[in-house]
Design goal:
Oligomer: single chain
Largest sheet: 9 strands, mixed
Low-confidence stretches: none
Strand order of the largest sheet: 6-7-5-8-9-10-11-12-13
Number of strands: 19
Radius of gyration: 23 Å
Number of helices: 15
CATH class of the largest domain: Alpha Beta
Length: 449
């Protein structure tokens, strides 16, 4: 890191005593703590204050707390009102050390991580680029990425997530994106928004609040809220670039051809013909969004083409294909789920024409009063694919069965489902697994491997 201990004390208006030292890293988990790190006692599923004293005695140069830890001298503790908010405050301070950084931020209901990975690959063709690891897109994950900044980086791509209004505004306050992408407005986390999709659209538009003056907002021209996003950008005197497939757009994917090895397409504003190993219309939207952002950063078309051709989406559990024994193809899409991402996955399965498909569906969470209706909706959509078997898991499995029909096999015990599924899968089958993260369907995936 590029920060001294005295600076951290100064950020939180706390007097510093003793010898000043360079801080190796910021730590929120004592299991990864290194000597000299500054430890933040965050309150989440567990209370980090339980480990604050341990962190200090394990070598932390200071601990950030909401209440003083017993047995640790007060001078080694920085007391704040909210440690999570303090972490973001320090990240904002640290980010400002890298004023010339070409910064991009990506949000949206679907496709954030894929678009972030694609854009980072494109920027890396021209710039030394830092990107958010995995899906580190919240008040803890975003600072973790910021603290990895070094002088060698020319660009950075941050993923920004949310499930409540105001979250994106808080997160983007720590960085100053020159370019922001809003992939789409969908029904993820709709339970937390009284005014439904309109509320979600307003929350996504919060990404504009922290942008550089005159920055560029990349907007999905095929999204129902495209006009709303353009008006919001105009209010803030931001520039806009649209992308899409169906409607008129600044960056429009055309001549799309799906082949066995991936997808070929062009965009209306570049001469190159692109190839990506990704399949599915939703991935072409992600690619088009990334192309639009990369162009805003002056990345040449040939460099964009090279990045797309070499791109692999690995280790994210998003339509990840793994060949198992007995020629079984596992399609692991169990990282997260909402009605829109399920619809996109079903469309991809249908277009690619997989045979002997065994589908495993888990609950879609955080849909509120609409949960029952939306599970019925997805159950009906699964009728579009000739399934060999359809296993449904979770609280709303009955609603899925109501939509699909009597042949849906309902389970509320994950271990039992794992045993039955393993026995049911036969040579040559394609097994598709998808559900919200809270279902822990990755445990079922591991049983199959």
């Amino acid at each position: 890191m590029k920060i001294n201990l005295s600076e951290i004390y100064r950020v939180f208006n706390t007097g510093f005593e003793g010898r000043d030292v360079s801080v190796p890293d910021i730590c929120t988990d004592t299991r990864t703590l290194k000597k000299g790190d500054v430890f933040f006692a965050l309150i989440g599923d567990t209370d980090g204050h339980r480990y604050a004293a341990q962190a200090f005695y394990n070598g932390a140069s200071a601990i950030i707390v909401e209440k003083y830890a017993e047995g640790v001298e007060t001078a080694k503790q920085i007391k704040v009102k909210d440690t999570t908010r303090a972490l973001l405050t320090l990240a904002a301070y640290y980010y400002k050390k890298f004023g010339k950084l070409k910064c991009a931020a990506v949000t949206g209901s679907n496709g954030k991580t894929t678009t972030k990975e694609l854009l980072a690959a494109m920027l890396s063709e021209k710039y030394e680029t830092l990107k958010s690891e995995k899906s580190f897109n919240n008040a803890i994950g975003l600072p973790r990425t910021v603290f990895k900044l070094k002088d060698k980086f020319d660009a950075a791509v941050f993923e920004i997530g949310m499930n409540h209004a105001g979250e994106i505004k808080n997160l983007v306050s720590a960085i100053s994106p020159r370019v922001s992408i809003i992939t789409n407005v969908g029904r993820a986390h709709i339970a937390f928004f009284r005014d439904g999709l309109k509320g979600i659209a307003k929350a996504k538009a919060e990404i504009m609040t922290g942008m550089e003056p005159g920055g560029v907002v990349v907007i999905n021209a095929d999204d129902d809220f495209a006009g709303f996003m353009e008006r919001e950008a105009a209010k803030r005197k931001l520039n806009t670039v649209t992308f899409g497939i169906k409607n008129k757009a600044d960056v429009r994917a055309v001549d799309i051809v799906t082949a066995a090895d991936g997808t070929y397409f062009k965009v209306n504003c570049l001469k190159e013909r692109f190839f990506t190993g990704l399949k599915g219309g939703y991935n072409i939207y992600n690619a088009a969004a990334a192309v639009a952002a990369a162009m805003a950063f002056k990345v040449p078309g040939k460099s964009i083409k090279n990045a797309l051709a070499g791109f692999k989406m690995e280790g994210f559990m998003r339509f990840e294909k793994v060949r198992l024994k007995n020629s079984v193809l596992l399609i692991n899409d169990c990282y997260n789920a909402n009605p829109d991402s399920f619809s996109a996955s079903i469309e991809a399965l249908k277009k690619e024409g997989y045979k002997s498909v065994v589908a495993v569906m888990g609950d879609m969470l955080e849909l509120g009063k609409s949960s029952a209706a939306m599970h019925i909706e997805i159950g009906k959509k699964f009728r579009e694919i000739p399934l060999k078997n359809f296993f449904v898991y979770g609280k709303y499995s009955g609603q899925v069965k109501k939509g699909y029909g009597e042949k849906a096999r309902v389970y509320t015990d994950r271990e039992k489902l794992s045993r039955v599924l393993k026995q049911a899968v036969e040579k040559g089958d394609t097994v598709f697994v998808k559900g919200s993260r809270g279902n822990k369907l990755e445990e079922i995936v591991e049983v199959l491997k």
